[in-house]
Amino acid sequence: MFxxxxxxxxxxxWGGATAANQFEGGSGVDGKGLSVSDxxxxxxxxxxxxxxxxxxxxxxxxxxxxxNSSYKKFYPKRHxxxxxxxxxxxxxxxxxxxxxxxxxxxxxxxxxxxxxxLEPNEEGLAFYDQVFDELNKYGIEPVVSLSxxxxxxxxxxxxxxWVNRELINFFVRFAATVFERYKGKVKxxxxxxxxxxxxxxxxxxxxxxxxxxxDLEQAKFQGAHHQFVASALATKALKEIDPEAKMGCMISxxxxxxxxxxxxDFQKSMERQRDALFFGDVQVRGYYPAYxxxxxxxxxxxxxxxxxxxxxxxxxxxDYVSFSYYMSSAVSANPEELEGAEGNLLVGGIKNPxxxxxxxxxQIDPKGLRSALNQLYDRYQKxxxxxxxxxxxxxxxxxxxxxxxxxxxSYLREHIKQMKEAISDGVDVFGYTSWGCIDMISxxxxxxxxxxxxxxxxxxxxxxxxxxxxxxxSFYWYKDVIATNGEKLD
Length: 490
Known about the structure:
Layout (H helix, E strand, L loop, with lengths): L12 E5 L2 H4 L29 H4 L3 H9 L7 H4 L3 H15 L3 E5 L2 H4 L10 H16 L3 E7 L6 H4 L8 H16 L6 E5 L9 H5 L9 H26 L4 E7 L2 E4 L4 H23 L6 H7 L10 H7 L4 E5 L3 E4 L34 H15 L3 E5 L17 H19 L4 E7 L19 E3 L11 E3 L1 H11 L7
Parallel strand pairs: 1-2, 1-10, 2-3, 3-4, 4-5, 5-7, 6-8, 7-9, 9-10
Antiparallel strand pairs: 11-12
């Protein structure tokens, strides 16, 4: 009756993860519109240009003209690493590694350039037909995010982003369109990537220009509510169009641990953990958790909820839970007295003296992945999918196309070992797609030099290079991991 599982499931979905806005390129090609990610610049002296009050006074046309007038400024995510023209080559490399799955996202702006059109852009739909057909040729299962920081820019400048309830209808139209088009080609869908990230970067997550709100917390929670409803309605559409397909949620999961055994530190860590769990609770359980009332009251947030919303959320929860895991973070009730974790820019936290850090200051905690898997499975009792896990590092290309990225192998090996331990704990994990299987533009810094992939792309932070694809040492290591179903890790 009771048997400990000591191996990964036979049908485990090994693979890698990407996002269209960081990877695809092809901006403006075949009718593609501008997204929120397309407005971030990079140069060698100023890492990132932020939006400011000037954008609030501009029409969508003026914004578009400002960003399309010339390429005096470099917009990395408009170019990505040009998967748009290299997809056959890249997918062949994934197949050579033995990928069972490939997590990717659709560029909403490639299918509905402004986001509110009544009819889709056929050229955009046809591109993804080619991608899915190529994946199918190699027996690679696509896991597809509908929205991964790719909100059409027009929906920001015209409608104000997700704080506007009209976006629910636009999103559901987009979702239903791709469900119909790719029925039978895509089995696993994800509604919103890292939906809880709206708390930390509301522009790319919700389309909120922060300077435009006197009460940003109100706007964040209202936008999140609209996304919850949109996710549920998209799930409803999926079940009607393709009953065999599955819909998942996706949360950014940092494991928060108390810095000390102080009851105050423990309480604070529990509160921080709820920052992620809140978003999973609504999408998985189908209702707002009891602690919502206090959270909203303390932030003076009053949600505008339509009468039908509660029933929609209850009727259409997600089928599985996917999440990203990169680090854990220590939490203190008195953080000003302690050293901060410099790399944990989004979630903050205190530096854990027991953990090493990456070149970007992210603290490395493989055992935290086991804890995260157990926490999520204990809470939800639904299948789990590790949608992102990886380490950004500066890789050195040596003569003879040699890249010895043993640090990446070490990071991934230790995390996969802990994932296997979680399976022995009884956790139902059905897939692992490490981030990002090929070098692409960093979401946070807009650099390619912060590399994650098994495949090196000959391109620098300003987009210069041949874009030649080169296999790293980790390419061959991961190939063995997949071939042995996680048995050969050393």
